[in-house]
Amino acid sequence: MPIYDKIGKGYNTTRCADPYITERIFQLLNPVPDGLYIDVGCGTGNYLSALSQRGLQFYGIDPSALMLSEAKAKNNNAVFIQSKIEDLELPDATFDGATAIFTIHHWDDKSTGLRQTSRLLKPSAKLVMLSFTPEQLLGYWLCHYFPKTMENSCKVVPPLADMKQLLLQNGFSFVTEELYFVQPDLQDHFLYSNKFRPERYLIPEIRNGVSSFTVYAEPGEVEQGLIKLEKDIDSGKITEVMKQYENKLGDYLFFVAEK
């Protein structure tokens, strides 16, 4: 069963397209008029839908039937295909650009997936990804309360240098990255979205939409960590913990890879 079939139910109650992230992806993608784009690992189609409202035409690809059923219900103009990117059979040079938002850590074979993505892109087209690195994850104050869970999450994504090398080795000629720091008004409740609102991690619905808590969680650790977190929120100690984890690594990264 695909990972996001496990958390697909109720996913859209806490996950939505954040306006700033949507705008940044649009600018980095630099779309051409009447272009055709592919959203790899589109999930329930939140960002695909938001970008479509900016005039982009999309194919949405995802292995989860549950996620795609929700995506199709709210996106009448997009084409959806249930598939892993590694297995996708479409002609070469079909798309003018690609997006991959919080998805590459779920790919079974990242090299094949990136090579496939590059194959599907026209010359000079861009892939815009929003992701994270192990280095960044270890800078989250969540590590104080859920160390093993965060350690497990680190294992599913390459370090920054390796990620850039993967892109360059699998069909992309130029890669840049841009730091993204979580802001207090963030609307999409992914893992570190509530960096400034620790009390929200006590809400089950928030945690249920995050794979670190539903798929990579260490048995028993989350329950104990939540007890400790609630205690620190009540006492005010959470402010001290959060300050200890302040850093300049960025909370996430936009990658822009050009074919």
Output the helix-strand order. Answer: HHEHEHEEHEHHHEHHHHE
How many distinct beta strands? 7
Strand order of the largest sheet: 3-2-1-4-5-7-6
Distance separating the two termini = 32 Å
Task: Determine the fraction of residues in helical runs and give it as a percent range.
Answer: 25-40%
| Envelope shape | globular
Low-confidence stretches: 5-11
Query: What quaternary form is this?
Result: single chain
Number of helices: 12
CATH-defined fold name of the domain at 3-134 and 156-193 and 249-258: Rossmann fold
User: What is the C-level CATH assignment of the domain at 3-134 and 156-193 and 249-258?
Assistant: Alpha Beta
Rounded average pLDDT:
93
3D architecture notes:
The chain is of the alpha/beta class and 259 residues long. The chain has a domain of 180 residues: Rossmann fold, CATH 3.40.50. The chain is 38% helix and 18% strand. The chain has 12 helices and 7 strands. Strands 3-2-1-4-5-7-6 form a 7-stranded mixed beta sheet, sandwiched between helices. Helix 4 links the parallel strand 2 and strand 3. The longest helix has 15 residues. It is globular, with a radius of gyration of 18 Å. The chain starts with a helix and ends with a strand.
Features:
Rossmann fold; 7 strands; alpha/beta; seven-stranded mixed β-sheet
Short description:
The chain is 38% helix and 18% strand. It is an alpha/beta fold and 259 residues long.
